[in-house]
Amino acid sequence: MSALFENDEPFENVISIENKCTRLNLNENIYGTFAEIGAGQETVRHFFRAKNPKGTIAKTLSAYDKDFSDAIYGLDPQHRYVTEYRLKSMLQYETKLIEKRISRIKHPNKMFFSFANTVATIDWAKKYKGHGWLGIRFQREPRQEYSEIILHVQLHENSAAHQQISLGAMGVNLIYAAYYQSDDPKLVMQHLYDHLDTGKIEIDSINFTGPIFKEVDNRLMSLHLVKNNITDAVMFSEKGNNILPANVLYKKNLLTLRGSFRPVTNLNLDMFRTSRKLFLQEKDVDKENTVIIFEMTLNNLKAEGEIDEKDFLDRADLLCASGHTVMISNFQEYYKVVEYFSQYTKAKLGLVMGVDNLEDIFNEKYYRQLSGGILEAFGKLFFKSLKVYLYPMINEETGEITTSKNLKVHPRMRELYKFFVDNNRVVDITDYNKEALKIHPRKVYDLIVEGNPEWEKMVPKLTAKMIREKNMFQKPASAKSSH
């Protein structure tokens, strides 16, 4: 298995699943319940096979029948069973029950936990690969308020039996990490993959909450999922918590703006305003069923080599404060974004881009790795109902505005380009703010670093206020002097 994280331990030094269970079982103060729905009791099975299972297992339950599950945990508002809501209901119910049934007077040093999962494995026709929610609610000190680690997984193996084995291993890894590695959430994430790899099971959402994790920013945890190739894309809401992409994207009309957002400028907001207006005018696009996503790629974040976590959080804070849903991805090419979205929706898709981005899309050098070259990429990019909303570019010396009508592409690409423009797959944004065209995001950032107040005219008022009050995008003094 290849290393997922920097400074990974060699595979042969990773503690075995059996030894993890044994260590937990022999700790007389760690005690809890296991509730596993949909994929068998794969996690608790490991604890039963290890030494002294009675030391850890208070109860194990598989409420496989839906009526039994509803009777115990209550109805999910959407009448679904493989959901975060169902998982949280299970965790909360089971911890309340163990607190009620195990005497604190008799067991003053017990640290309780509830582990739960709700999973749908691959179907017999192999049409749906399967997915699930796993979580642990636990104490690391007696009587402590509970902390939680909750994650969503996509299952990639082609048999239910293999998926169950992987889920069992990840469940053990999660419980062990909660008790012995949770001082460092990144270490937790690393060790969730002990004896596993992302080709088998993919984590696409994870949240750490509670007193142990009060200093954790879950957006950083999202970033590390993408950075370490655990998943291709993650999303977080305006509240800053990680959200499951499938829940956000499912059957929605999607409009996406890609950028570095370092910081959000008046240019970005004008692109958002004008493209949103056009997108909502499209046939069958209902405002209530439309999601607008601000996307940053890993390349957007690697402005100067490695990703700077503070710099990332500064950008994220500004986007969240403006009420936007944010996606972090490792999709360099736009067609990969469209492929990703197409897994979840057949509704309308829109990409907002500037003229320079559209020029890049029609450059053949970016598609040499594809057997079908640029034609294959365009077949994926302009899949069904996708449109590009093109924001113009100004030549500040001549005042000339470049749109789809006068954009120059390579002679070999002219007919292909003309086909998409003539068929209304590239739509010019005309209701733009001409002053916004003159804003260069990199220049705005440089002015902030230099301490030149001119940048304040180029960003929204809320953005300017937050940058000033929180000293965002400030380099250490040593870094400034080296420029």
From TrEMBL:
Matching entries from SUPFAM superfamilies are given as: Nucleotidylyl transferase
State the Gene Ontology terms under molecular function: nucleotidyltransferase activity
Alphabetically list the UniProt keywords: Nucleotidyltransferase, Transferase
Please state what the protein is called: Nicotinate-nucleotide adenylyltransferase
Q: Which domain of life is it from?
A: Bacteria
The protein's matches in InterPro entries, at most eight in alphabetical order, are given as: Rossmann-like_a/b/a_fold (IPR014729)
Q: What species is given as this protein's source? A: Christiangramia fulva
